[in-house]
Amino acid sequence: MRPLSKSKFSLLPLLATLASASPSAPAAPGWQFSVKGNSGIVALEAVVVSPTLVLLFDRAQNDPLQIDGHPAWGGLWNLEHNNITALEVVTNSWCASGAILSNGTMASIGGDQTGFPGNPAIKPGNQAIRLFEPCTSPVGAGCTVFEDPNLVLIEPRWYPSSTRIFDGSLLIVGGMHEQAHFYNTDPAASFEFFPRKEQTARPSAFLERSLPANLFPRVFMVANNQTIIYDVEADTETILPDIPNGVSVTAPTDGSAILLPLSPPDYTPEVLVCGGSVIDQTLQPGNFSSQHPASSQCARMTITPEGIAKGWEVDYMLEARTLLELLHLPNGQILVTNGASTGFSGWNAVQDTVGNSNADHAALVPSLYTPAAALGQRFSNAGMPSSGIPRMYHATASLTVQGNFFIGGSNPNNGSNFTTGFEFPTELRIQTLDPPFMFVPRPRILSMPEKLAFGTRVSVPISIPNSLNRRDANVQVSLMDLGFSTHGFHVGARLVFMDATTSNNGKTLSFVTPPNGRVYPPGPATIFLTIDDVTSEGAMVMMGSGNSPPTLE
Ligand SMILES: *[C@@H]1O[C@H](CO)[C@@H](O)[C@H](O)[C@H]1NC(C)=O
Ligand SMILES: *[C@@H]1O[C@H](CO)[C@@H](O)[C@H](O)[C@H]1NC(C)=O
Ligand SMILES: *[C@@H]1O[C@H](CO)[C@@H](O)[C@H](O)[C@H]1NC(C)=O
Ligand SMILES: *[C@@H]1O[C@H](CO)[C@@H](O)[C@H](O)[C@H]1NC(C)=O
Ligand SMILES: *[C@@H]1O[C@H](CO)[C@@H](O)[C@H](O)[C@H]1NC(C)=O
Ligand SMILES: *[C@@H]1O[C@H](CO)[C@@H](O)[C@H](O)[C@H]1NC(C)=O
């Protein structure tokens, strides 16, 4: 990595000379990767909790960041100062999931039951519910992770998924009871809720059927090569067509899935499921190779009776990827980033690990997917730089309130391992991926109410740079859940477009909020204004009452 950044710096004076010698206009700004600093723990799980802070969790292990005389495994990454504040976490958050409740409290769900040698502070985490209350301090002063030993999951869960639903509570899905090295060999084949809706977990035929490669099921839901719609109120599973061509898309064959942007008036849901691998699941880990090609397949389906009857439409990414991330841009495009072109999640399990990694051939160049383009023309990486840093197993990515992407992590090792001389050591460098609009005058949302009710028209003051102030400009207003990132997928991420107009003088934006919590589950949201693909900084709001989700009794 060092020679690369050195040559970049030595090129800068040359570029400056060329630019000053040339009378032509400066080139339009492009996408840029920028290394921001060192996170001290692996950014294994990442969730944006405020305009300036990303909450990170790692495995409780031997990370360099210290707290109270032992290695930390939680922290708040500051997007403004590019540094990290360690957080005291009691239980092991390794391969936990999480989401933010309707009242703004982040809940980290499940984790690993074991400790790690040399870090005696750790308590078992597979039944844990860790709470991080809304944090108003821009630097996270006084913000802590709270763990009540009496507040636990019904079933122990390592590798579960969790997402906020229409009533503001979390649906918690699957996982396994104990640690296993590749397949789900001790399944928690059930659903439960936080706060609880009943005192026993709901068994799931789907999670039984999709064994053994069904860890971290993606919610609409997809696990292995199977998909369902789960009706939370009726507790019924409706079977949808399998992902085509035998591609399995959940750990250890990690693909990624995303709900495409929802638009008024119908908010018709469409899902996109990309990457993963085709494997013979009767074989054992030692029979697999780190050179096993991942899939480039992307399957897309409209989740209506007609769409389901039509089935999956198959498309292809520009390269094969496993352990990838799919992320919304506020203009409705999808960013494809992170991952590897061969191999699997995990470490030291396949016959020919690379360093300790089960995966190889890091996919370094992101691409953009344009949902409305014609089939076959939706993917492009024109003008996209290479990240220069492999982001494979245990890496994360998230859109930030500033409108750029936070990218961190990668650790296909047993604990942190900074030994030199092997491929894919523990990666602590944090990068941003900055879209071109970060380098030009941007529209601004000048103020926003703290809370927004469903189904109402809202007017807010804005400013629009002259370069974009035209009546025929394309104005988009998106209401976004930035989601929770881990293991190459992004649970809870959602983009709802809102009908919007700007006033003739360009000083007022008027938009209509979504009709109800089934279109946007009540809870924190970030609103972005995009004019001709130039996006403002986001404004964080509370969508709905901000009340706590319902509890039993
Ligand atoms: C982060 O950087 C800011 C600005 O330099 C500084 O005030 C703050 O103390 C730093 N925080 C940590 C945890 O290093
Ligand atoms: C899904 O996987 C199962 C088990 O490996 C296989 O029998 C089935 O044919 C696959 N479905 C498709 C559409 O490839
Ligand atoms: C799978 O691995 C086992 C031992 O790890 C070996 O005995 C067997 O021959 C392998 N099978 C295949 C198909 O490679
Ligand atoms: C991971 O490393 C720890 C500490 O060195 C060791 O005790 C443990 O057995 C290792 N686990 C695996 C699965 O390699
Ligand atoms: C780090 O990984 C390398 C390569 O597998 C191995 O030789 C070394 O023992 C590991 N170090 C630690 C501290 O686990
Ligand atoms: C949000 O609700 C959860 C679950 O009932 C509760 O534990 C938490 O303290 C609440 N947070 C706030 C800010 O009210």
UniProtKB/TrEMBL annotation:
InterPro entries: Gal_Oxase/kelch_b-propeller (IPR011043), Gal_Oxidase_central_sf (IPR037293), Glyoxal_oxidase_N (IPR009880), GO-like_E_set (IPR015202), Ig-like_fold (IPR013783), Ig_E-set (IPR014756)
Name of the protein: Glyoxal oxidase
Positions of the Glyoxal oxidase N-terminal domain: 76-437
Residue ranges occupied by any Galactose oxidase-like Early set domain in the UniProt entry: 442-543
Pfam family of the protein (one): GO-like_E_set
Signal peptide residues on this chain, from the entry's feature table: 1-21
Record Gene3D superfamilies: Galactose oxidase/kelch, beta-propeller, Immunoglobulins
Keywords per UniProt: Signal
Keyword Cell division found: no
